Each structure stands twice: as C-alpha cells, then as structure tokens.
Amino acid sequence: MRRTFLFTELSHKVLTGFWFGKEHYRLQKMKYSLKGLFAVFIIFSFFPLQSQESEEESVLQEFQNAQAAEERFNIFFNSLDRYKINSAYDWLDTVKIYLGNSQKTKDESASVHYKLMQAQIYNDLGDYDKSIVLAKELYGGSDTLDITSQRLILDVLDDNYAKLQLYDKQIEIRKRKREIGISENVAFYDIYSNLGLHRKARNQYIMEVKPTIADNDSYGLAKYHSKVGNYLRLDNSAPTALSELKKAKAYLDVFVNDISKQKTEKELFDAEFLKAEIEGNIGKCHVLLGEYDEAIPLLENSIELLTTSPKNSHQIEVVENTLNLADANLQLEKFTDAKRNLDIEFENISTLQTIKRNSLLASFYDKVENYRNAATFYRRNERIKDSLNQKQSSLIKQQLVTIVANEDLENSQRLIDEQKRINEQARNEMKAKDERINFVFISLIFTLLGFAGLVYAYLKSIKNQRLIADQKHIIENALIEKDSLLKEIHHRVKNNLQMVSSLLSLQTKNTRSKSAIEALEEGKSRVKAMALIHQKLYQNDDLSVIEMQGYIESLINSVQSVYKKGGHNISITIDAEGTELDIDRAIPFGLILNELVSNSFKYAFPESDENGKIYIHLRKNGNQGYFEYTDNGVGLPEDADERTNSSMGIRLMNRLVNQLQSKLNIDRANEGVRFWFNFS
C-alpha cells in the first residue's frame, strides 16, 4: 500500500505540473519523459518496503493524529515547514475532510479553524481569489473570534490583496489591525515598493524601523540591512545595495555563530531562509553590475533553499532568482543552462516576471539565430505591455494619491458616488470644450514664453559660468604667486638668520672670554634653530605647517655640530612621526628643544657618553598636544630651584612654554631628568 501511494502521488504531481518545495525545482529541470516515469515505477515497485517510511513523522501525520480542532490549528500554523513532505494539495484535501465533518456536527469553532487553514492553503497555492472569499467570510464575524484568529485572518487578507495589487484594500486591512490592537503603526513602505516607489519605501522603512533595533540585535540588524539593500537594488543602485547586503550577511553570520545565546528552532529556520534571500539579492546585484560568474553560484544556492519554503514571498523570489540565473547564463553564452532555467514552468508568476521571461527567451533565440521564435516572444511582450498599461495606469495613479495623501479609504457606496460625480464632470467638460481649447491655447503661449525665459536663463548661466571660470583662474594664479612670495620670504629670513649666525661665529673668534664664547655659541645655536624652521617651510609644499620628525632630526644634527667634542655616542630616540605644527608653535618648540639638547650635551654626561640616551616624544591630536624630553644623565643639581631664576636657559624655556599657554614640568628621577608639558 505504501509503494502504491507514493507512486500515485508522484504521478499526480508530474502530470498536473504542480510541484511545491525543492522537488518542484529539481524535477522541472530534469523534465522526466514517459520512459523516466516507468523507471521510477520499477524502482518503487522493487524497493524494500521499510525504505519508503519517513525517518520522521510528517507534519500532516502529526496533524491527523491530533484529537481536537484547536490542536490541529496550532500544529498547522506553528509548523516551520508543513510542505516539506506533503504538498499543499495533500493538506487541502485533508482539511476539507475535517471541515466537512465539523459542519456535519455543527461545531462552529472547529469550522472557523478549518476555514482559516483552508484560506491559508489557497494563499500558499496562489489561488488568491478563493483565499479572499474564505477569509472575508470569516472576517465578517471576526468580532466573535479570539485575537489570534483575527490576526491570522487579517494577515491572509493583507497578503492576498498585496499579490492582487489591491493596495487600497490592503491599507484598509492594516488600519483594522491598528484598531483592534494587533499593530501600533500602519506601515506603508512595502506598498510604496510594490508601486515602484522604492526610494520612498526605503526612506520610510529606515525612519520607522531603525530606531526600534538594539545595537546588539544581530538578527534584527541583518533583516534591516537586507531590506534596505533590496530597496536600493530595486531602485537600480546596485553598488550601494551590494554594500548593505554584505553588511546584512555579516550580521547574520554573527547571529548564527554566537554560541553565547540559545536559539530556538524557529530562529535558526528563519535565519537559514534570510541567508538565502540575502545571497539571492547579492547575486541579482552582481547580474546588474555585469559580474555574472560571481552571481551564478549565489543564485543557485538561494534557489535550492528557497524552493523548500512554504511562504509565497519566497516562491516569488525563486522565480526572480531563476530569471536572473538565466540572464547570467545567457550573457556567458551558456545557452543550454539558460534554456533549462527558462523552460521551468512556475505556478505563480507575475505579469512583470512573464515579460522578463519572454524577453530572455527572445534574446536566447536571437543568440542561437532562431529569429522566428525570437519574434514570437517579442510580439507576446508587446501585447502584454499594452494590456498592462491599459489596466494599471488609472488604478495605480488613484492608489498613489490615496497612499501619499494618507486619506481614509472609501466604502463601496462612496466609490459608486464618486464614479457618478466623475461621469457628471465628464458631461460638463464636453459642454465646456471651447473653453478648454482656449485654455490650452493660452497655456501654449505661456509655455512658449516660459521656454524663452529658460533659454535666456541658460544663456545667462553660461555667461556667468565663464565669468566664474575666469575669476577662478585669476584666484588660482594669485594663490600660486602668494605661495612663491611666501617661499621667497622664508628663504630670505633663513639667509638673514644664517648671516647672523656667521656674525656670531666671527665674534666668537675675536673673543677670549670663555663665558662670552659660550654665550655666543648658545645664541648661535638658537639662531640656527629658528633658521632651520624657515628652511623647512620654504622646502615644503604646504607653507602652513612643519613636519616635526624631520625638523627634530635636523635640529639634533645642528646641535651636535656645535658640540663637536661630545654627543656623538649618545643614543637619541625621536618619536614624532606624523606630527605637524604651524610656525607659531614650531619656533618656541624648536628653541625649547635646542636648550634641552644643548644642556644634555654639555652637562648630562660629564664623564662619558658611551651609554647616554635621550628620548624625545611629541604628539598632537586635534587641539591637544603633548611633549616629553628625557635623558639618563647625572640629572639636575640639588640647588636647581635656586638657579632657575639666574639660569637664562631655564628662564627662556619657561617663557617659551608660556607662549604655548602651558607650564613646564620637571621630574628629577633617580637617573637623569625628565621635562614635559601639554600644549594646545
């Protein structure tokens, strides 16, 4: 009996052309012949009986084993994948039997439950009209139902109206949800997207949903970025969409791999299908960008998983992904694969998807030089497009006005009254035909005047642009001249300071006093420090700042040249990479560093500088800067505080630090000395 049932079920599915889930997609691609069916029959006839038994009880079997209608109701709507083993037709037949029994026993509560399940199954099958009839029948008595049943009825109606593009009815259902407390807000972003207003849909979605997602909600962030990315893709912004979709995939990976949080079976089930959606949308972005090799594996993986989903939205995604897969194969001239994709017959395919499929088939026949078939599909598309334009134009315009204005929906009687008013208005317009012709004529005159004004404004804007370009050229030349003059000034200042340094050197040679010579050498060192700053400035492309790492290295070399007898064995570490200072800060800083290095060379290592070390650190982040100077010499004498007032070097450093709006700090460590200060 089991073998006979399986063969009957398989034969029924193949002959009727209905496949639901993963078997649908695979068998449609294989296109079983009669010979193949016979082979399947032989296999099932001789295969051991126990191998046909399901390893796990199907949801339908669990449903049939339940004792009460309410228990079956919960099994049906809480099952994660009710169509994995048994098709929707199997479910429909079973539910009809239970519905008939409940009607015979006049069990009203059970009848409501079975009718609601029946409405959901028709929705899953794509028979939206039947689903709406059943749901509306239940909706009429929804005030007597529990809140869960009311929510399910409204969800079914919402989805049916969306599939049939009856967006005004869909808005009515959503407002009803708000009235009975099922949802607080009425969201329209998916309706905007269905009407082609993808950018408006994205903006409203971001505004309404993003504030509700916690920063640590990885799954919520994955859904959010997936939705935003899909709206961007539909709006033909493929590169930006790709970035959002990759963020979504990254957040979903974090959610799935987070072992610190326990996840329910439903959460893992939903995450698996969300990943398939994201990969499918990433694949479609690659197709839009012409990256077909990257698109194909993503689309194939997405299709393979989404075909097992009971959700209608996923079945629509399967169709869309299959068409994009065919497009990618066609562009790569994989004609056999492309034709196999296009030959798949889907139960639920929208008009726009039919147009796309016909276009791809026409392109395929063009490429294989079968021009007669190509022309056939081109003509089919033209007929579909003409019909679509006639049917949808006025309806979509009316619904757009309704949604954007956010007006209350009208009931049937008001729609009839509105139609009467439109007819009356049409009769009045016929009577006023002459007036309208005059109005059109006057409008034409004003249009011509407006066009003339636009031409005048355009010509004037061209003239202004030329004037702006000339002024920009003058300003650029002036800036170049200014930079040249500044470089020349800094060069001359450097030369003048070098001349002062040379004069001090001459004066040193004519002086016999040792203290005077030391004073002149110190002055010469300070002058060189300032001259070096001006030299660095005119050598830079940017005249406003000095790169301090190179400046400090040059300054150390300059000081070493003054103290030829010492300082060459000292290890000097400079940590100022990437730090830049303007001239107002660089000059005081250079003089301070000149004093510190000179003092280290003169006094820090009186006996030997073999193990001498000097560390210089300079950093500036934004408006805050920090300087530190350390050596491991003999340190400051014990009466250093008393010498502070008499030492010109210390007094000079204090004044220079004051110019930087800071205070010089001195740390007399056990070994050496440390100077530091903060500056702005």
Task: Record the SSE blueprint.
Elements: H1 2-16, H2 22-30, H3 34-46, H4 59-65, H5 69-78, H6 88-104, H7 108-125, H8 128-140, H9 147-163, H10 167-179, H11 189-194, H12 198-209, H13 218-234, H14 238-257, H15 265-288, H16 292-306, H17 312-331, H18 335-342, H19 351-367, H20 371-405, H21 412-431, H22 433-509, H23 514-539, E1 545-547, H24 548-562, E2 571-575, E3 580-582, H25 583-604, E4 613-621, E5 624-631, H26 640-643, H27 648-659, E6 665-667, E7 673-679
Parallel strand pairs: 2-4
Antiparallel strand pairs: 1-3, 4-5, 5-7, 6-7
Helix pairs in contact: 1-3, 4-5, 5-7, 6-7, 7-8, 7-9, 8-9, 9-10, 12-13, 13-14, 13-15, 14-15, 15-16, 15-17, 16-17, 17-18, 17-19, 18-19, 19-20, 22-23, 23-24, 23-25, 24-25, 25-27
Task: Explain what you see.
With 680 residues, this protein is mainly alpha-helical. The chain is built from 27 helices and 7 strands. It has helices spanning 2-16, 22-30, 34-46, 59-65, 69-78, 88-104, 108-125, 128-140, 147-163, 167-179, 189-194, 198-209, 218-234, 238-257, 265-288, 292-306, 312-331, 335-342, 351-367, 371-405, 412-431, 433-509, 514-539, 548-562, 583-604, 640-643, 648-659; strands at 545-547, 571-575, 580-582, 613-621, 624-631, 665-667, 673-679. The strands form 2 sheets. It has a 5-stranded mixed beta sheet, covered by helices on one side. A two-stranded antiparallel sheet has the order 1-3. It starts with a helix and ends with a strand. The model is unreliable at 1-56 and 404-415 (pLDDT under 50).
